[in-house]
Amino acid sequence: MTLDTEKTLVDRRWWTLAVVSAAQLLVVLDSTIVNIALPSAQEALAMGDGDRHWAITAYALTFGGLLLIGGRVSGVLGHRRAFLIGLLGFAAASALGGAAEAPGLLFAARALQGVFAALLAPAGLSLLATTFTGRDRGRAFGVFAAVGAAGSAVGLIAGGLLTEYAGWRWCLYVNVPVALLAAAGGGLVPGDRPVGGRGRLDVGGALLSLTGFAALVYGFARAESLGWQSAEVWTLLAGGLALLAAFVLVEARTAAPLLPLRVLRDRGRSAAFVAVTLLFVAIFGFYLFMSFYTQTVLGYSPVRAGLTLIVNALAALAGSMLIAGRSHGRVRPAALILPGLLAAAAGMLLLTRLDAGTSHVFVLYLLPALVLTGLGLGCVLSPTASLATEGMRGHDVGAASAAYNAAQQVGAALGTALLNTVAAAATATVVAASPAAAAVHGYTTALAVGAAILLAAAALTALLLVPGRRRSRPLR
User: Fold this and answer.
1) What are the transmembrane regions (predicted)?
2) What percent of the chain has pLDDT over 90?
3) Average pLDDT score over residue span 54-65
């Protein structure tokens, strides 16, 4: 190989990172950007209060439910081909949603976005896992994690700006040029060979994973509006767990499983899934309460509330790129993941000291909390993404990538529903207080629960990572 050829391959690797990061931003951003636009969309489309949640839930259901299938399809088609199909499909679905003139069409477009995101997300992570090695792997996953960590906050910021100055439809239209530019750049991504099919398609596993994840995500979403005492909620959650248990049994006996159980047997990979799931439970509740607190208690406009989260996004970038990315290979993953979880927990605990009359609230409370949670998020996402895919080959790369993304989706859905319910219950217990004081009591109670979840995540991750000297090895 000549020096010029080697330099070209190196340049194409970093181009791969840029293209995959742009796609990751789309997937993560669309989990939150529509939240800010929803009131305007509801008014414009005459959407009923009982149906509006489908603009959020339809995306989460198809995205979370189809991720494992998307990981398998990505391996069969080839990760680059699947990645490009996912980008173009996501762009088309976004354009359809932006042009919607009826609630049903918007809901269908959001569901279609989730379908293509379920193909796009594992394909992108698989491309990174198979392209980068050594110290470059740490830098690449640091950038990728930074985009993922900042994406949710960026979604809230962009949603506020676009809704106020361009209209709610641009919260969907904005995806089109980004996806098309990423797809155009995808031609420079190094190609990979499709793994090909091995045996018959795991139809049973596909159906069980789809219905199981969909039932869990929908159950968590319904808990937000119906409360945890609802029989419908518990039926959905119990049914989802039963279906996923059946999925595990089927995968253990199938010759060509959708999710080979060996993917889950490595201690490091299991720790990554535990850490990222519980992190997303807490952090999505944190974003929810930051949005409510700044607008309903401090009186910020939607744009100002969104811009406040820039601090969190910048801290996440620093945690992912400057700390985690540069430390890859020099320290054990536990040395990044555990302090990251503890830093995020400290940020949430700081906010439990708020009350309705707190003075200098931004400097004394919001600023350090946003920095700590952002740094923690960045320090956790980079090493967990690397651990989740380390040593994987063939179909297992797509399966591990899909499982990692599924863990995030389930955590986000559970966190939003669980912590919102905790906040509502705590607010209702406050008697003879102003509405603002009651609301702040609810927020601080829920944030205390979120901090406890992060501390539990740190303890469980330590049990899996610290005693284990094994690292993931290539599967033979």
Assistant:
1) 14-38, 53-70, 82-100, 106-128, 140-161, 167-189, 201-221, 233-250, 271-293, 305-324, 336-356, 362-389, 410-433, 445-466
2) 30
3) 83
Reported as a single tens digit per residue, the pLDDT across 195-204 is 655 556 678 8
pLDDT digits (tens, 9 = 90+) for 342-384: 999 999 999 999 887 777 888 889 999 999 999 999 999 989 9
State whether CATH 1.20.1250.20 applies to domain 10-189+203-465.
Answer: yes
**Is the pTM higher than 0.85?**
no
